[in-house]
Every structure is written in structure tokens, then in C-alpha cells.
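Saturday, quiet lab. Running sequence design on the C-alpha cells for the scaffold JK sent over.
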């Protein structure tokens, strides 16, 4: 009896750290290398290695070596009866742990990166075409070429333009960009950054009361700004007001954070909203008078430390 009690205590000790629970939950979904696990949970590789070693020695994980790399996986059928029963009991609670939803999003990004690496490997083996193309033309031309799908005569409003990152990307492909920001300092930085581009107009004003006439632009873009606004619905109504449809336009594009629980962002970064749920964005657009609303969660970049992102697009009815 004392031996059984000691064994139970040891098993519970293995699970007494939230990071180890997150590791087990992720590794039940997918076999990962140490580096991939570190990217998913955003922890130093040395810390992750220590926790993986403890879980492996406790019989929770199966370890597989491929060359110099080690891969780990939680296989439910491989656990002994006591550990299996304990994990089945604990597992539903892991979904509520802070950070686990973001772990799942980053896992998708890691797996996409792995697939890309795999395709690149086989591509090189089949003639090194990707490497040759990159050497001749670089790696940016595909994304930039796709911007030419935007009609060249459009006027695009970059709302909350900041220092001009989005305006810099879109300006070479459209007729005019109107860069709007409520901060004179930000507009000054954008002017300096974009001084070589002649088709950008700068206007100071808030997104809840845009300094633009009715039906004056073909598209609006708003990147990582909406969560700063007290009334995001009011900003979307303003987007609807300034959009026109008679040249095929009437498109609003928003990139922002998915709903998350990092409450410290309110104080440290001045966020008014902790991201937005998909159904919330659908409602905000429809209440503002938009149609054809589409909200898509974007794959997480394993190097990114922030919450996941979504891209939402909506059109005005013709």
C-alpha cells in the first residue's frame, strides 16, 4: 500500500506544472521534435528539454531518435493503466489552461513549416528548382506579384496607418493610397518612410470619425488597430460610409487578434479589446451594413510571440 501511494504521488508530481500539461496535450496531437515543441509553447529549448526528459522518464512519452534529433509523442495506448486513467481524467481541464489555445494555433504553423521544409527537400532532390529560382529571382516576387490582382485604378484607405507598413506594400499597385492616423507623430514617420512614393495622401483623424468624404475610396485596410478602439462597430460604419462600389470596389479588410486571455495587454499595450471572436466580427460587419463577410484564422508564425491573428473581409452590396 505505501508503494502504491508513492507511485500515485510521483505521477501527480509529473503533472503539477501547467507547462507539462500543455506539453502532454500538444504531444498527444502530434509527434514533435524538441525544437518544434519549443516553438509551439514559446519556451527556451533548454527548459522544454528538461520537462520532456522528466515526462519521458515518468513513462508519459515515447521518444524516437532520427539522426541527431529526438521526437516525442504521447500515445494513450502505450501508457500503463494508472497513467492512462489519470491523463483521461486531467486532459479535459487542459483546454482551459491559459496559453493552450495559442499552443494549438502555433502547432498548425509549425506543421505547415514542416510540410514546407519537406516539399523544399524533395524539390531540391528533383532538380533543385526552388533553390535555382530563389538564386535567380529572390523569394519575395510571388507575394508581390499577387498584389497586381488589385485593380490599378483603385483608391485604398490605410486606416490607422502607423509608420506606413501596409501603405508601402500596396501603393505601387494602386492609383492612390490615403493614409489615415490620429497620431501626428505616426504620420510624420510614415511620410519619412514613404517619401519616394508620390501617390500617398496623409490625413490626421480617428477611425471613428474618418476625415474622408462619403463614397471616396474603393477599399479600406485596417491592420492591428481595431483592438485599440473603444467602439469598433462605429469604425466599421465609418468604413462603410467612405466606401464606393461603382468601380467594383466596396471592400473592407481587417487583420487583428483572435480572442485571447492576455489581460496584461490592457495595461502594457493599451488594448481595449482582447481580440475578437469570429462570430463577433461577423456581427460587427453585418450591423455596419456589409455583406459577403468572410473571417479566416491565419496560420501562426512559429517565431511570433503574440496571440493568433485573423483576416476578415467584407463587401458592400452592389
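Result came back. Writing it out in full:
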Amino acid at each position: 500500500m505505501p508503494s502504491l501511494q508513492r507511485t500515485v504521488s510521483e505521477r501527480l508530481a509529473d503533472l503539477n506544472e501547467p507547462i507539462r500539461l500543455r506539453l502532454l496535450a500538444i504531444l498527444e496531437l502530434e509527434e514533435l521534435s524538441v525544437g518544434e515543441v519549443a516553438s509551439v509553447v514559446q519556451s527556451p529549448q533548454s527548459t522544454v528539454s528538461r520537462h520532456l526528459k522528466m515526462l519521458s522518464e515518468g513513462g508519459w512519452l515515447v521518444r524516437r531518435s532520427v539522426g541527431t534529433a529526438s521526437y516525442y509523442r504521447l500515445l494513450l495506448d502505450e501508457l500503463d493503466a494508472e497513467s492512462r486513467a489519470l491523463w483521461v481524467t486531467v486532459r479535459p481541464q487542459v483546454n482551459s489552461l491559459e496559453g493552450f489555445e495559442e499552443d494549438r494555433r502555433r502547432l498548425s504553423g509549425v506543421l505547415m513549416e514542416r510540410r514546407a521544409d519537406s516539399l523544399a527537400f524533395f524539390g531540391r532532390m528533383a532538380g533543385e528548382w526552388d533553390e535555382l529560382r530563389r538564386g535567380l529571382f529572390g523569394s519575395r516576387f510571388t507575394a508581390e506579384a499577387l498584389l497586381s490582382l488589385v485593380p490599378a485604378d483603385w483608391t485604398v484607405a490605410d486606416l490607422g496607418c502607423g509608420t506606413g507598413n501596409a501603405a508601402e506594400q500596396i501603393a505601387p499597385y494602386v492609383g492612390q493610397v490615403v493614409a489615415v492616423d490620429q497620431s501626428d507623430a505616426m504620420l510624420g514617420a510614415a511620410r519619412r518612410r514613404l517619401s519616394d512614393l508620390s501617390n500617398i495622401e496623409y490625413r490626421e483623424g480617428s477611425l471613428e470619425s474618418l476625415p474622408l468624404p462619403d463614397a471616396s475610396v474603393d477599399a479600406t485596410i485596417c491592420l492591428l488597430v481595431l483592438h485599440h478602439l473603444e467602439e469598433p462597430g462605429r469604425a466599421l460604419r465609418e468604413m462603410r460610409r467612405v466606401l464606393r462600389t461603382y468601380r467594383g470596389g466596396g471592400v473592407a479588410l481587417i487583420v487583428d487578434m483572435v480572442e485571447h486571455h492576455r489581460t496584461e495587454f490592457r495595461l502594457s499595450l493599451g488594448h481595449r479589446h482582447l481580440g475578437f471572436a469570429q462570430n463577433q466580427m461577423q456581427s460587427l460587419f453585418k450591423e455596419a451594413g456589409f455583406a459577403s463577410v468572410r473571417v479566416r484564422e491565419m496560420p501562426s508564425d512559429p517565431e511570433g510571440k503574440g496571440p493568433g491573428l485573423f483576416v476578415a473581409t467584407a463587401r458592400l452590396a452592389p
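Notes for JK: The CA atoms of residues 27 and 73 lie 5 Å apart. The chain has 13 helices and ten strands. Ask whether to fix the surface positions before the next round.
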